[in-house]
Each structure stands twice: as C-alpha cells, then as structure tokens.
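Dissemination and training. As part of the outreach component of the grant, students in the summer workshop were shown how a complex can be specified as a set of sequence lines and then modelled as a single object. The example used during the hands-on session is reproduced here so that future cohorts can follow it. Participants entered these lines:
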Amino acid sequence: MSFFARFAQNRGALIGLIILMTIILMALFAPFLYPDSPWRMVQRPFLAPMEVDGFLLGTDTMGRDVAAGIMHGAWVSLLIGLVSTAVALIIGVPLGAIAGYYGGLIDDGLMRFTEFFQTIPNFALAIVLVAIMQPSVTSIVLAIAIVSWPPVARLVRAEFMSLRHREYVEAARLVGQTNRTIILRQILPNTLSPIIVLASLMVATAILLESALSFLGLGDPNVMSWGYMIGAARTVIRQAWWLSFFPGLAILLTVLALNLVGEGLDDALNPKLSRER
Amino acid sequence: MLYARLILMRLLKAVVVLFMIVIFNFFLIQMAPGDPAAILAGEAGATDQEFLRQLRERFGLDQPLYVQLWRYVSGIAMLDFGYSYRQQMPVLDLILARLPATLLLTGTAFVLSLALGILAGSMAAARVKKPSGSIIMALALIFYATPLFWVALMAVVLFSVYLDWLPAYGMYTVGAGLDGFALVLDVAKHLVLPATTLALFFMAIYTRMTRASMLEASQQDYVKTARAKGLSPRVIQRRHILRNALLPIITLAGLQAGQMVGGAILTETVFAWPGIGRLMYEALMQRDYNLLLGIFFFSAALVIVFNIITDLVYRLADPRIKEGS
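and obtained this result:
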C-alpha cells in the first residue's frame, strides 16, 4: 500500500488534513482578502456577527474586523508553531542522538539535564522566559522551543539505543566510518518516522502554548494573534461573547487537525504498530 | 527502613533540582534588559538615583558576579525570596498567602480528572470497535485540543452569564460574612467552574492513556487464563485488566502534575481565583520580576512534591518495585 493510501485509511486523518489545508489557505490568502492591517479600525465597535454586510464575524471593542484578525492570526499561529518545533528539534535531536549513541557518562549527564527541564513546569518556564526576554516573535519561539525539546531528546535517545548495535551499524564501523558519519548517515535516517510523528503533535502543542502566552498579554505587540484577540476581549465577555468565541474555535480546529494528521502519519509510517491498536 | 532511605534519596534529588532553579533564576535576572536594581525594585521609582544606589548596595550589585550569586543562593536557602516593591510585601508572604487556594484548585482538578479519565478510558477500552467507544475517544481528542483559557471563558458565558447557575469570579461571595458549613458550600460553588475546566484537558490525557494501557493489558496471558476459567467479561475487565493497567497511569499522572500547575495560571486568571497562578498574572502585568521568579520557584517545588508523592503511591501500589530500580 502506498503511503497516502495508508494515511487515507484513517478517516480522522483525512478530515484533519482538510481542516489544516483550509487554515493554511486562510493564512496564505489573508493579505489578499484583507489587505488592510488587522489592527485598523474599520467599523463601529461591538458589531455582532453578520449585523452589517461584509463583517461576517462582527467587530471588536475598537471597531476592528474580527474576521480579518482570524485570517491574519492563522499565519502567526502556524508560523510560530512550525518554527518553534523546528528549533526544538534542532536542540533535542543532537542531544538525544549523542546520549543514545555514546551511552555511559555522556548519556547520564545529558539525561539529568533533560530531566531537569522536564521537572520544571513547562508553562511557568515559558512565561518567565518571555517576560524576561520581552515579548516578541523571537522570544516566544525560543521559549516554546526551550520547554518542548525534552520529549524529542528522549525519543531520539531511545531509538539510537535500540539501533546502535544493529548489524548494519556494526558493518559501518568495520569499514571504518567515523562516529559522525554513522550517526548522521546510518542511524538518524532510520529514526525519522517517529520524529516526524512527534513533530506534528509538537506543532499542535506549540500553537496552544503560543495562544496561552498571548492570552496573558505576552504576545508580540506587532502581530495579531488568536490568543491576543481572546485576551483582549476577556473583560467584555458578558457583552460580546463572539469576540472570544471565534478565535478560540480557530485554535481548537487547528490543534485538533494537527493531532488528527499526526495520528494518520503514525498509521502510515508505522503500519505494523498501529494495526495492533 | 526502605521507605526512609527512598524518601531521603528523593529529597536529596529535589534539593539539587531546586538549587539549579535558583541559579537559573539568578541568571535570568542578569539577562533581563535594564538595570538589575531597577528590576529588583519592580521598577518602582526607577528615576530616583539615590534609591537605586541604596538598592545596589543592599543587594550587593556593586560586587562581582560570584559574590552576587552566593548572596542570592544563601538568601533563598534562608527562605528570603526578596521583596515585592509593587505589592509592598515580602515575596514569601505573598506566595504563602495564596498557596492554599491553588492547592485546593489543582487538588480538586487532579482527583476529578483522574477519576473521570480512568472511568471514560476503561469504558472506551471495553467498547473498542463500537461507535460508543469511538465517541468517547473523539470527545477526549477535542478536549485535548481545546485551549484551557477559552473553555474557561466559554463556561463563564454559558453557566454564569446565560444560565446564572454558578458564580464566575473569586473564591467566596464578597461581603457575605459566611462561616461554617455555609462557607464551605460557598467555596465549593465557586470551585465548580475553575476545577472542571482545568480538569477537562487532563481528563482527556488520562482517558487516552487508560484505554491504551487497558488494551495492552488485555493481551496478557493471565487475561486469557481468566477468560478460559469462564469469568464474566466485567470481572475480567475490572479485576484483571484495570488493576494492572493502573500502574502506568499513576506514573503518567505524576508527570502531568507540572502541567496542571501551569494550567492553573490560566484558569485562575480567568476566574480571578486567589491562588499563585493569579498572583503570577498580576506579577506579569506589573513586571514584578522578583515576585515572578519566586512563584516560578514555588511552582517547580510544588511539582517536585507532587512527583515524590506519586512515586511513593506507585511503590505502595506495586510492591514488586524495589528501591534502586
């Protein structure tokens, strides 16, 4: 069976993929459909959804278009989710690979270090980091990456430990390949599928984290994000529930879609395992 | 004896971790933009040069870095977390005053999510290929993907604003002057929404975990034996499968404790629950870094305590685990 056929067998994964595609399209077309800055005041404040033509989701406390904010926010959420996951992989994969390949004292030391980061409450650490570094896209990405790399390191370490004594690795060692080559060329390619599955789930968690940070007022003040929209509308929730409702729904759908796609990837990449479940 | 040594080892490890967090905090203050003295002062009266000079002297900021580090660490070893100039109170007093509310909230949410999660997960495991089982898992996935703060806000809209069933803010009715049973009831009423919304996400995790763990346990030989003996599926499910599936869930629950403290920051902010999560939000709004780092330290300490407790529970539940393993 081809990769996509296996993926498509999981109906949830297909639904997830469709939702995710829609959100990616929203992000791509936001500058064309809503060329104005989402921060611009365009109508009376507190318009309910569909009260006035052209303002499908109404306007916020300052008369900004909620629909424009959601479209532009899609871009920010996806970007921060992807980049922070990439940074977390850049930290976690080498650490896990070195710990798993060399073992012994190096492994012990690196795993203590990883454990330390796993003990600290994730969200509290992210808050402290962003607050100290001052809120910006860069500091948010860094903070999310710093709290999300430990599971990557653990996964890669476990994979390396199970692969490092395989015959093809021993063979590579016999023909005199260096440790570096063995790690990069022989073992790492064989650990890619679980890393890809984990990464897709990490993007989802990163988006949740970003929205929670922006909700608390730690978002980048220059970009419109879903979390910020909910946080800004919190005080007027009694008068205007829709200001919080739609951005939250957007977060929920994006995170849900990424989780479904992650499960589908798991089925497609590890066919043997998933059949047993 | 065995337990005494075990607890001692865990405490030692905890001290090491907390020590590292203190050092981490110290360097975070150094990293922050601007004058550390201004940060320690919560930027209050930062224009007053004389005040800043006094602060520098008092905190030893004119000393070399290692002397500063030593002062900071030994200060915290004596439970001196500094002073919150914004709130005009020592950081420790502020945190200790708010700690019980957080313990009540997270404790309730923990028990609630664990109980409901195990229940839902075992129901889903017993209905693997049936639609009812799939519906439970779909719901769990949705709860897992829902932002905590958003579901909290929506709960306020639905249950407090429209239905007017439950109070949306605070921990007691202000100015009601209740005591005894009436007070307990009042707090319980205020607790329902924050605890439930905090529990939802964790319930989803425990549901998925319980189901996976039970499906794995149901493949074991002793389950086949039990089936061959002719025991009813319900007895097998509860006595043989669930009991053995519980162990990994306890481990996971301990690991999730840290996330729950983090989640409490969001729920407490939405519901104005007077715990350390709300305090952290206030510290954040006022850029009160001293207080912020103090709360960060305490939240980590809370997680470590939680982890030690689950570790002990795990060993009680599974006597096969020997020390050292």
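The radius of gyration of chain A is 22 Å. Students were then asked to discuss how this feature might be tested experimentally.
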